Every structure is written in structure tokens, then in C-alpha cells.
């Protein structure tokens, strides 16, 4: 059995240093706008945001593991739950639900109904191809790579484009087993 | 009934103006808003020293016309908010309450990273929010 | 109201802005990188001053606005007030934070190789770490300039880090 992961990040979030979300939201918004000015192409901005997120994820995973006491050896299903209930809570103060598992147990979706990145944001008509929250998918991809899970992380639904929720699809491409041999649930 | 509201930038550039009345009044209302800006400037540049409301954002009744009452509000960032109403008996608390909500809606609209300072506010969310605030004017005035 | 996020989120973003602009697209143009980082800060400061002055009377003069930056604004952003405010009464104000939060907590990437042009030259020590810190400071300098500019006070803002971890922000109001 894998060590028990915390079911919720509430206690951890209550104990980390926190700041006013407005500062975070507005800083991210200003970055996106500056990148649009400098890179011009929306696709380039999507790529850059993903890359920035990846770099952040690679760094944040240590803080996450240290503060959450989550073991590195959880399987993908448990990992998705931990991201949704502990990881997102600990950093952004929000949670997601995990759903839409495929038969193999290698693809699922995180559904976010609330997301501090997009407070006050309305996409202009010229930016409809922008994946505004791409930094978040990058963070998840970067963090998972540091615990030996190579993933593809894609936005399927986006409230800024009129969807009723944010849906982030996680697809496990390759898992390098560590101490525990990889065990398929199905 | 509120017939017109406006947001005007610090160079008297209109950022948002919306009337809630029959179309043939629109030009007249825009003119009233325009004239009220001079009154705001006058008020701010020559404050009554004895007034307890010195530097308060809420400027009160700017001037009454035959059919309308015009109220003003000036933010720290020199943005003017204007309200034109046909009500004769308006309670001060209702007007203050209106401006507080109107100001909050404005602040959220300009917090959109894609809003360009000094440019017109085109946000649909803002328009809807303002319309809701206008409709609720005077209905709940406990504060 | 009162929504919060972990402080790591903000720090991560700031670190990433600096490394993206200094190591990435503007690797050999530190002045351009600095200008972009400052511009991001400017937008944030501009918007924050709009939010943080919402429920207060208008400022009557420059000093009142600067005091607001030192107290309320700084507390919202950095959870403490400015420790010392000095002025020459001719439009220059020096705001000293004895333990500037973004320097005491942030991990500064020492590989950033650049020289600040706005920063006080005496503060730009020989070593790269100080230069990297200089790059990070364009962001808060931009925040201060954006906030004051929106309050009707055009100015230039620079940072002095000759007494780390203290950091002084020098505001020169344009006549």
C-alpha cells in the first residue's frame, strides 16, 4: 500500500504564508498582456506561458512534497486526486474534481469551477485562441515530471471562452517506476 | 428613476456613458453629463473650507435642472462618476450606496488585464453589472 | 472579498518574469528586459492603486499619497509598512524597507547576467548575484511608479540595495 496521502489541503493552506490574491491575479494578467505585446502571436504566448509554468512546477514540487508529506510513490489515480485536493488548495486555495477516467486509468480530467487566475479577466476578440491559464497546465506537467510521470496536459474547457467550467486533461504518457514496481489497477 | 450614468476619465474623456430612457432624450442627457464635469472641476478646485466633505469622493448634488438631478463622485485616480435621475425626492444614502457599487464595478472592469487605461470600457460584464445596480437603485437602502 | 493564495505563487511568477525576460528573449539586451519587467510592474501598480484607494477620501497633496504607499499599499502587498520615509522637500522621497520581503524570501537566480541602468550604480556590486537582484527590483519599482502615476503623480523610481537586506526605493517626482 502506498502511504496515505492527505485528503485535503485545507490545513496546509491555513499554515502557509498567504497573500492577497489580487496581487497574484493582476501580476499574472500583466505578464500575459506584456507577452502578447512582445511575442505578438497568440500561439507563441501559449507556448511561453506553458514553459514558464513548467519551470515553476519543477521548482514548486519540492515545497509541495515537503509541506504535504505526500510520498513520491503514489500511482497516477492517487496523484490526480492529490493534485486536485491538496496541490491546488495549497497554492491557489481552490480544489478540483477528478473525473472522466479512461479504461486504462491513464487519462482523466480536473474540473475547476473557480480559478483566481481569471478574476476580472475578459478575453478580447483578438485573443480567442489564447489559453489564458496555460501557466497552470505547465505547472502540473513540470511538477509531475519531477516525480517520474511524463504527462501531456491540455485545456479542454475554458470559462473565458464561454464554457461552464475549466477542464484540464491529464494524460500519462510514461511512468518511470521508483521503489515500487508499477502496478496496473485494471 | 436613473436615466443616465457615466464614467469620465481625468482628461474629461468619456470612458462609459449609458442612458436608460427613450432614445430622443439621449443627446440631452449626454449634454447634461458634459456640463456636470465643469461643476465637478469647480467643486474640487474651490472647495468650501468649512465643508466636512472636503476631499470626500462623494460630491453630492452637482446641480438640479428642471427635470433632472445630477450627482457626482470623484475617485482618487481622478475618475468622475456621474448619475442623472428624474426622482425628485432622492435620499442621500441611496445615492452614496449607488456610487459605492458603481465605483466597485468600475474598479473591477479596469482590473481586466486587457483593459487599456484611458480607453472606453467595452466589457459586457461591466455593462450588465451597472444595469443591475441601476435597477436596484433606491430599493434597499438600509445602509 | 479576502481571497488569498500562497505567497509562493507570487514569488514564482516574479522569479519567472525575470528569468524569462533576462535569460530568454532579451538575453543580450538587459535594458530592454528591464524595461519590460518594469512595464509589467507598472500595470500591476496602476490597477492596485485603483483598488486600494477605493474607500478613502482623495489625497490633498503628494506627501499624503506617498504616505499611503508607505502604509496601506505596502501592507497589502508586502504585509508590513515602509520603515523609514525621507524627503528633501524638493520632490524626492526615499522609502526604506529594512527587510524587503521579495529579497529576503525570493530565490534569486544567480545566472542572470546583466546590469541595471536605472539602479543606483553604487548599489550594483561587482558580483552577478547583486545584478540579478537589481533585475528583480525593476518589478517593485514599476509597481510604485504605476500606483503613483494613477494617483496623478508622474515620477521616476529606482532602487538602492547598498544595505541588504534593507532596500530603499527612491521616488523622484517630475515637476
Please give the structural blueprint.
The complex is a heterotrimer of chains A (186), B (143) and C (175).
Chain A: H1 10-15, E1 18-20, H2 21-39, H3 42-68, H4 76-92, E2 97-99, E3 107-112, H5 134-146, E4 149-157, E5 166-175
Antiparallel strand pairs in A: 2-3, 3-5, 4-5
Helix pairs in contact in A: 2-3, 3-5
Chain B: E1 2-8, E2 14-19, H1 26-45, E3 58-64, E4 69-74, E5 80-85, H2 92-110, H3 124-135
Antiparallel strand pairs in B: 1-2, 1-5, 3-4, 4-5
Helix pairs in contact in B: 2-3
Chain C: E1 4-6, H1 7-25, H2 30-52, H3 62-78, E2 84-87, E3 92-97, H4 101-104, H5 128-150, E4 155-160, E5 167-173
Antiparallel strand pairs in C: 2-3, 3-5, 4-5
Task: Please explain how this structure is put together.
The complex is a heterotrimer of chains A (186), B (143) and C (175). Chain A is an alpha+beta fold and 186 residues long. Helices cover 44% and strands 17% of the residues of chain A. Chain A is built from five helices and five strands; from the N terminus they run αβαααββαββ. Chain A has helices at residues 10-15, 21-39, 42-68, 76-92, 134-146; strands spanning 18-20, 97-99, 107-112, 149-157, 166-175. Chain A has a four-stranded antiparallel beta sheet with strand order 2-3-5-4. In chain A, a hairpin with a 7-residue loop joins β2 (97-99) and β3 (107-112). In chain A, α2 runs antiparallel to α3 and α3 packs across α5. Chain B is α+β, with helices and mostly antiparallel strands. Chain B has three helices and five strands; from the N terminus they run ββαβββαα. In chain B, strands 2-1-5-4-3 form a five-stranded antiparallel beta sheet, with helices on both faces. Chain C contains five helices and five strands; from the N terminus they run βαααββααββ. Chain C has helices at residues 7-25, 30-52, 62-78, 101-104, 128-150; strands at residues 4-6, 84-87, 92-97, 155-160, 167-173. Chain C has a four-stranded antiparallel beta sheet, with helices on one face. In chain C, α1 (7-25) packs antiparallel against α2 (30-52) and α2 runs parallel beside α5 (128-150). The longest helix of chain C is centred in the first third of the chain and has 23 residues, at 30-52. The model of chain C is unreliable at 107-126 (pLDDT under 50). The chains are: A alpha+beta (186), B alpha+beta (143), C alpha+beta (175). The A-B interface holds A 22, 25-26, 28-30, 32-33, 119-124, 127 and B 108-109, 111-114, 123-125. Chain C: This is Trafficking protein particle complex subunit 6B. Chain C: Belongs to the TRAPP small subunits family. BET3 subfamily. Chain C: One of its GO terms (biological process) is endoplasmic reticulum to Golgi vesicle-mediated transport.
Amino acid at each position: 500500500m502506498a502511504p496515505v496521502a492527505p485528503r485535503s489541503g485545507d490545513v496546509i493552506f491555513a499554515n502557509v504564508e498567504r497573500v492577497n490574491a489580487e496581487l497574484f491575479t493582476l501580476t499574472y494578467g500583466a505578464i500575459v498582456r506584456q507577452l502578447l505585446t512582445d511575442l505578438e502571436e497568440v500561439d507563441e504566448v501559449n507556448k511561453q506561458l506553458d514553459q514558464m509554468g513548467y519551470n515553476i512546477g519543477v521548482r514548486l514540487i519540492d515545497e509541495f512534497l515537503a509541506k504535504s508529506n505526500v510520498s513520491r510513490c503514489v500511482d497516477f489515480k492517487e496523484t490526480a486526486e492529490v493534485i486536485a485536493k491538496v496541490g491546488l488548495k495549497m497554492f491557489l486555495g481552490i480544489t478540483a474534481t477528478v473525473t472522466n477516467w479512461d479504461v486504462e486509468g491513464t487519462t482523466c480530467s480536473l474540473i475547476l469551477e473557480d480559478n483566481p487566475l481569471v478574476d476580472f479577466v475578459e478575453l478580447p476578440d483578438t485573443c480567442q485562441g489564447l489559453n489564458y491559464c496555460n501557466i497552470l497546465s505547465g505547472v502540473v506537467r513540470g511538477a509531475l515530471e519531477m516525480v517520474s510521470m511524463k504527462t501531456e496536459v491540455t485545456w479542454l474547457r475554458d470559462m473565458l471562452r464561454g464554457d461552464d467550467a475549466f477542464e484540464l486533461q491529464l494524460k500519462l504518457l510514461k511512468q518511470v517506476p521508483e521503489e515500487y514496481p508499477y502496478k496496473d489497477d485494471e | 428613476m436613473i436615466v443616465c450614468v457615466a464614467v469620465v476619465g481625468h482628461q474629461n474623456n468619456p470612458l462609459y456613458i449609458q442612458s436608460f430612457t427613450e432614445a430622443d432624450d439621449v443627446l440631452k442627457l449626454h449634454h447634461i453629463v458634459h456640463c456636470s464635469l465643469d461643476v465637478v472641476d469647480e467643486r474640487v478646485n474651490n472647495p468650501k473650507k468649512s465643508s466636512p466633505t472636503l476631499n470626500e469622493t462623494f460630491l453630492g448634488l452637482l446641480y438640479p435642472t428642471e427635470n433632472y438631478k445630477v450627482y457626482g463622485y470623484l475617485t482618487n485616480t481622478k475618475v468622475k462618476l456621474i448619475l442623472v435621475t428624474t426622482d425628485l425626492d432622492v435620499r442621500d444614502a441611496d445615492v452614496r450606496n449607488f456610487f459605492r457599487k458603481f465605483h466597485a464595478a468600475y474598479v473591477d472592469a479596469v482590473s481586466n488585464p486587457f483593459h487599456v487605461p484611458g480607453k472606453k470600457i467595452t466589457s459586457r460584464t461591466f455593462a450588465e453589472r451597472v444595469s443591475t445596480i441601476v435597477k436596484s437603485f433606491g430599493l434597499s437602502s438600509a445602509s | 472579498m479576502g481571497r488569498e493564495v500562497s505567497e509562493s505563487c507570487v514569488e514564482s511568477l516574479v522569479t519567472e518574469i525575470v528569468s524569462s525576460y533576462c535569460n530568454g528573449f532579451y538575453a543580450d539586451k538587459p535594458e530592454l528586459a528591464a524595461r519590460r519587467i518594469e512595464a509589467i510592474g507598472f500595470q500591476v501598480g496602476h490597477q492596485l492603486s485603483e483598488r486600494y484607494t477605493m474607500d478613502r477620501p482623495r489625497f490633498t497633496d503628494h506627501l499624503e499619497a506617498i504616505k499611503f504607499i508607505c502604509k496601506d499599499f505596502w501592507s497589502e502587498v508586502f504585509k508590513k509598512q515602509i520603515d523609514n520615509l525621507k524627503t528633501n522637500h524638493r520632490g524626492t522621497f526615499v522609502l526604506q524597507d529594512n527587510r524587503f520581503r521579495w529579497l529576503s524570501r525570493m530565490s534569486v537566480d544567480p545566472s542572470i547576467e546583466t546590469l541595471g541602468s536605472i539602479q543606483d550604480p553604487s548599489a550594483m556590486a561587482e558580483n552577478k548575484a547583486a545584478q540579478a537582484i537589481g533585475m528583480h527590483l525593476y518589478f517593485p519599482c514599476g509597481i510604485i511608479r504605476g500606483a503613483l502615476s494613477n494617483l496623478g503623480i508622474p515620477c521616476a523610481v529606482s532602487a538602492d540595495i547598498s544595505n541588504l537586506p534593507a532596500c530603499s526605493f527612491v521616488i523622484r517626482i517630475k515637476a
